[in-house]
Amino acid sequence: MATITAEQVEARVVETLASFGPDADQITRESTFEELDIDSLDLVELAQVVEDDYGVVLKGEDMKELKTVGDAIDLIVSRAE
Amino acid sequence: MKRRVVITGLGAVTPLGVGADVLFERWAAGECGILDGAGACTDFEPSELLSVKEVRRLDRFSQFALVAAAEAIGGAGWDGELPYDPFRAGCIVATGIGGIQTVENQLDIQRERGAGRMSPLGIPAQMSNAAAAAISMKYGLKGQAFAVGSACSSGAHAIGSALRMIQYDDADAVVVGGSEATLTTFGFGSFNAMQALSQTGISRPFDARRDGFVMGEGAGVLVLEEASAAEARGATILGEVLGYGSTSDAYHLTAPEPSGVAATKAIELAMADAGVGPEEIDYINAHGTSTQLNDAAETAAVKRALGEERAHKVPMSSMKSATGHLLGAAGAAEAVATVKTLLTRVIPPTLGYEVPDPECDLDYVPGEARPLVMSNGRPPVALSNSFAFGGHNVALVLQGAPS
Predict the structure, then answer these.
(1) How far lies B206's CA from each of A79, B14, B153, B194, B196, in Å?
(2) pTM of this prediction exceeds 0.95
(3) What is the value of ipTM here, to two decimals?
């Protein structure tokens, strides 16, 4: 897992979120999930992708604290280290 | 005095195409949407008609309903702004089966990768009220919204329920319809196991050679409004829902009661509710599934309800000859086609009907479309029948707008 970079995680997260509805170029680290119309159901699906790709398990209580795309990327990277 | 309920919008997604007009025009032209033994909505491209989020979150049955609702609501002139108090606007979308493709997909995932990989969208996509919920959310309908289910009568039950909701003053407007998408492994396998599906793959209702129904898919949606409110806002009135009657056979899980006593009663109740007699019925949109049992029992019921003499004079055609059987959507999509029939004064034919059956001896409009002859000097009136597994019978009496 040591080879995972923040850039890789960011690219994967943006790609996954874009598949849920918002345009990829609209998604930045600063975007809030609220403004992207990403809800709790989407975040559960994002967590499944993250677990498959990085072995990082994100629980409901982890997700609740996330406000922005950057929050999610940072959490995933920190757990993967 | 009952509140009157008028029809101001129509929408459809069927094997004949996307739209109420294309459904009616192609059926009236004698074109058939059945291919290789199924009535699939091959012209329906979700990504062209819905957002990425809608495509991802909605089972195919809800996608059909949302597209048909958009057409009906647009036609009613509701675009952009709801012309009613949102809490007085309801939504009923029937389905016989619901999001079965979603269930099948999620079961595959569960078996192959474990329950932990199942989608959080599984239940909300497959639930029978998913279509009603999607329409309610998209258009801000905050009154009663729910699904009704009675297998192949579902769509007609929805319209009857919406009629009562407005008549009872629980709503001023209801977006109502039915939707079904069961051309799946489970759908074909299960109906085949019942030996309900045509082995020839031909839907030819009332013909002596009929050998079962052809499964179709799609949706029909209507906008219903309380008459004085619709008139006050200057809506174009397409027709009126005059009456509704519903009974049950209390007989068998799948077979209709052969004499059609309860089906007769449903038709009689609908005519009484509408305040019309057999002489005032100008056209019958048959349930006409192309199964041996239904078509004979429906013929018997129509003869009993209208009287032998009148029954032989009223043209009766089945849309299922052109689309296959839309199951829970059938009653709604057929109501859409019936309103178009009443508006255009053109009766589409029962396609493929050639060989008479002694048990089915009415005028099934063979060959080609014909003009609707009005016997009463007033806007034409039609009966639309729906019968279902479980023995559920529904009859609707619809009237077209004055020309």
Answers:
(1) 67, 22, 19, 20, 16
(2) yes
(3) 0.90
